[in-house]
Amino acid sequence: MSIPRWPMRSAEFMLAEVPSVAAETVYVFNNTSVIQDEVLAHRIGLIPLNVDPDALVWVDPAVDEKERYNDTNTIVMSLDVSCSKNPHAPEGATDPKVLYRNSSVYARDLKFEPQGRQAELFKDQPVAPCDPDILLAKLRPGQEISLRVHCILGIGSDHAKFSPVSTASYRLMPVIDIQRPIVGEQAKRFQKCFPSGVIGIDENDAAYVADARKGYLLRHEEFNGLVKLGRKKNHFIFNVESTGAMPPTEIFLKSVRVLKNKVDYLRNCPIGQ
Amino acid sequence: MILFMIRKLYTLVAGDCAPDNPDATQHQEVLLGGFLYGMIIKEKIDEYLQSIQTQITADVTRGARVSFFDRTYMSKVLGRVNGNIGQKLQYFLSTGNLVSQSGLDLQQVSGYTVVAEKINFHRFISHFRMVHRGSFFAELKTTTVRKLLPESWGFLCPVHTPDGSPCGLLNHLSHKCKIATEASDVSQVPLALAKLGVSPAHSFAAGPDLCCVQLDGRIVGWTTHEQGKLVADALRVWKVEGGHGLPLDLEIGYVPPSSKGQYPGLYIFGGHSRMMRPTKYLPLGKEDIVGPFEQVYMDIAVTPQEIEKGVHTHVEWAPTNILSILANLTPFSDFNQSPRNMYQCQMGKQTMGTPGVALAHRSDNKLYRLQSGQTPIVKANLYDEYGMDNFPNGTNAVVAVISYTGYDMDDAMIINKSADERGFGYGTVYKVEKVDLAMDRRRGDPITQHFGFGPDEWPESWKEKLDDDGLPLIGVKVEEGDPIVAYYDETLGRTKVKTYHSSEAAYIEEVKLLGDDTADQEAQNLTIKFRVTRQPLIGDKFSSRHGQKGVCSRKWPTVDMPFSESGIQPDVIINPHAFPSRMTIGMFVESLAGKAGALHGMAHDATPWTFSESDTPADYFGEQLKIAGYNYHGNEPMYSGATGEELRVDIYIGVVYYQRLRHMVNDKFQVRSTGPVTSLTMQPVKGRKKNGGIRVGEMERDALIGHGTSYLLQDRLLNSSDYAQTPICRSCGSMLNTQMSVPRIGSIASVRCRGCSDKLEAYVKKGIYVNEADIWVDGHGVKFVGGDDTTTIAIPFVLKYLDSELAAMGIKMKYNIEPSL
After folding, report:
1. Same domain as A213, residue A130
2. Is the confidence at residue A272, as pLDDT, over 80?
3. What is the least distance, in Å, from the CA of A124 to any CA of chain B?
4. The pLDDT of residue B73
5. Residue B298, SS3?
6. pLDDT, tens digit, for every residue of B317-326?
7. Residue-level pLDDT at A92
8. Per-residue confidence (pLDDT) for residue B787, from 0 to 100
9. pLDDT score at A273
10. Contact B418 A216 (CB under 8 A)
11. Four-residue CA torsion sign, B24, B28, B30, B36
């Protein structure tokens, strides 16, 4: 049985090579909050943005810096918040959210500023953070943040913020082979060794494998010799947690496309011929 | 009292009692700052009065008119003596040097103060729980004073002492230990003693056959030894009960008669500076305050389980009471080899953490701050009791114990690149620089320098970093040589700038204008706070809370890190070889507990001595892991990040709280190609600050010789060091006698040996003809003949220096030059 190697590469590409959009440059005009400029910028950079990466083209670093960014490759967002006292706050209130206005800055405060043809392009789905409730900073009256964000296309191997997934990995299909019947009380204990639903108990009080797929393999002294645990080397169960811009299936297919492109490149490579 | 002392001395000499051990906590008390200040002020006031007296006595002997009712005379006298006692105390506080006529009965004159550093909160609080034995003992060759004695149980922490020279001398108080800052009210003690049938002090009594009752070093009565024990017990019941006018912190030290033991008696203390700690008094079930003197003769059970009826009178509130604050914060320290807990106490104090809460308003010289501080998932209960969450000191990291890639050898650790990019261990260093324009100005001189731009011409580029007022823009990035503040010099009529001096770029965090005390003049001072970003770099130091420190060796890309069945990738990889010899099992337990806590969303208690042989943490947390669907033992099957295949063994992976230590490469790295040299030897200077070199010492030299790399050796020791070319005389072999001749018409300057040449006069006197071409002239115009057999050789310059030094002692060095052409 040959062990396929491509799933490893696929998982790798989902993490590191499938492009997605994230904040790259933050222009801070004013920041009087306690959070430092670079830390705030870092936090903004890590916010997953709900942008279809196919809607943008790559930024060409060879182009002169002034003309490098345009409406085809850059999304501009802005954040302008200032905190003030809430004049209608009830007496004796201590909660900053009641006492002040804008005491917390969230990802939803990032406002999309369409450039050029972007207003048309993103008409149906305006650019916004995937999760509007990510806390960015906390403010107190008199403090304000005013900045502009340039978001571009990038890949996860460059920086984790460009990764379209929180995590993407696979595991091998577990194989639970009951070699000698496990019955009665022992069967119940055996059932408890696995997540629920993996082992069933039939009418004869004997344990049987109901759904090995859910199972993580745990080893217990008691069942030595009774059961053989293993993994099917060519059955991969992928687990993809998208950050929100793309559905996991799309990310997976894109990773396969990246793989295919690389294979094609190698095939056409003069060295290979 | 003197009789008592003489009697005790005789008993000691007769060998009937043991000498009191001055190194035991039993006989010690603590010199507190307040009392020391009081003593100093008292002495200074005394000196002040003395000098006033001398003044007046001098006036009397001189026959001047002395009147204590004359205001002008009195103020004249007072004006002639220095009455600034505050200044003297200030000097003491800032230097720690004790300037005193009497010496205040103290054993040292310096080292009384330390700066309470605010590197992180652990260090800060430790400074206030620290007791030093005295610098006199530091020089002592014997180690007896440093020994950990059982008497100090519960008063001084057995774990929290530095290793190295101050070991055992610099101790930390156990966290429940308090020091009496004022004397207790003991006025009712004699009455209570009388009620208990103690005969008064003036009654006829003597000898070691009777029990002497003393209160704070005064004899207050006599009784029999049998009675003394009962009196002590009754007193204790009364003081714990309260209501008899006896203070709770009264120390009732009953020393029973023994064969060659401590001198017997009933010693009662209520004075200040005593160490005290709370325990539970069993007969009444109430709190009793115990002192170090009495503790030795008491039976205090450590846990309620080990109380034996008829033996124990007290029980500890908690066994952790013997540990200091920091030692208590080490999770599962009862599972570690003890030196590792000591190391953690050291490292906890070097951690880049949260030094304070009002960081934005502080102007400390240097401040370290961790951005990603978290509360540990695994923490001792005391962590919350001391509110350590206000000052987080590290980050919870997923740690895999695996030998992977080889970059985790020798205590190195691999950090996940993505974890780094998401802010793992990110820190900041704040530096404050003071700019003082009045530096060269003398008192009373008019102000000639003003902050801001002047009307003259100055480079427009300055405006990139500076605002219109000449002060730096907040948030701007400055690099070496950039202007940080502009000022106008009136006398020169020119605008100048101060520049940033550090190879590391920084951001301007804050500018503070400082006026002088009277605030009636233009500000001449300002401070600039710089923010230096310090993201983790290769070479930065990290540690867990178990004395396991390591250096970041690589930031490994996420895709190449191993991953578990559930897709978890470690933030940190450490090598399994870090464990066998160090035996920090506590770290494994923390990993297990951290994993269980993270999976169930709860913080776990890591107080030492909560688990036992029958109830092991491995089982406790193992069950939790099992419920969460993980392996009972904390190890998991993992897949290689390189091949994607399963690793052959299960990997121990869990969550461990990691601290970032303040030792960072950016403060330490040292490189140099060419640079400054010392003028004496022409060898590179030493020191990172001076852009010096790194010494290739004897052992390095031995290694190079051992490897047979002679070319490399020559390169290091000669060519890259003090390589020099020097003229030398072949015939006499001297290096110092050579000199350049002065060029003349017909001959160019050449190197001649002064020692091998003769003056032309001698030739002329003898009437020998000398060819004009053979004559050379020195700088004074004296003509010489000969000495032309010279050449140039390559030597280390120190050789020439050595030659000169030897010459100064009248020793000549002679070199044989080969080949001799």
Report:
1. no
2. no
3. 31
4. 87
5. coil
6. 999 999 999 9
7. 87
8. 87
9. 54
10. no
11. negative
Is A157 within 8 Å of B557 when comparing Cβ atoms?
Answer: yes
Domains identified in chain A, total number: 2
Q: Note the pLDDT tens digit of each residue in B608-644.
A: 999 999 999 999 999 999 888 888 899 998 999 888 8
The reported pLDDT for the residue numbered B565 is: 87
Residue B106: pLDDT band with limits 50, 70, 90: confident
- Whether chain A has a CB inside 8 Å of the CB on B533: the answer is yes
Tell me if B360 and A34 make a contact (CB, 8 A cut-off). yes
pLDDT at B418 (0 to 100): 94
A138-191 tens-digit pLDDT? 999 999 999 999 999 999 999 999 999 998 888 888 888 888 888 888 888 888
CB within 8 Å: A217 and B557: no
Given a cut of 90, whether residue B540 has pLDDT beyond it is: yes
Give yes or no for B369 touching A (CB within 8 A).
no
Q: Is B372 on the interface with A (CB under 8 A)?
A: no
Q: Supply the pLDDT for residue A242.
A: 93
Of B422, B533, B629, the CB nearest to A160: B422
The CATH classification of domain B327-426+538-660, taken from the options 2.60.40.10, 1.10.10.10, 2.40.270.10, 3.40.1260.20? 2.40.270.10
What is the third-level CATH fold of B723-808? DCoH-like (3.90.1800)
Ranges assigned E (strand) in B168-235: 170-172, 178-179, 199-200, 210-215, 218-224
Residues A128, A200 within the same domain: no
CA distance linking residue B150 with residue B157, whole number of Å: 11
The residue among A138, A162, A186 that closes a domain is: A162
Rounded to two decimals, the pTM is 0.88
Are B542 and B549 contacting, i.e. CB atoms less than 8 angstroms apart?
yes
- Per DSSP (E only), the strands in B198-261 are 199-200, 210-215, 218-224, 251-255
* Distance in Å, alpha carbon of A16 to nearest chain B alpha carbon: 7
Contacts 24+ apart (CB under 8 A), A209-213: A209/A176, A209/A178, A212/A173, A212/A174, A212/A175, A212/A176, A213/A173, A213/A174, A213/A237
Architecture of domain B178-316: Alpha-Beta Complex (3.90)
Partner residue opposite B632 with nearest CB, options A31, A37, A218: A218
Q: How many Cβ atoms from other residues are within 10 Å of residue B815's Cβ? A: 16
Q: What is the pLDDT of residue B779?
A: 86
Number of alpha helices (DSSP H) and beta strands (DSSP E) in chain A: 7, 12
Which of B304, B337, B318, B339 lies closest to B385, judged by CA? Answer: B318
**pLDDT tops 70 at residue B821:** no
The answer to whether B179 and B346 have CB atoms below 8 angstroms apart is: no
For residue A201, what is the enclosing H or E element?
strand A199-201
Tell me the residue type at B422: R
Q: Check residue B548 and give its pLDDT.
A: 94
> Closest partner residue to A169 among B507, B567, B629, by Cβ?
B567
Q: Which ranges of A5-90 would DSSP assign to H, the alpha helix? A: 6-16, 37-45, 65-68
Residue B251 pLDDT exceeds 70: yes
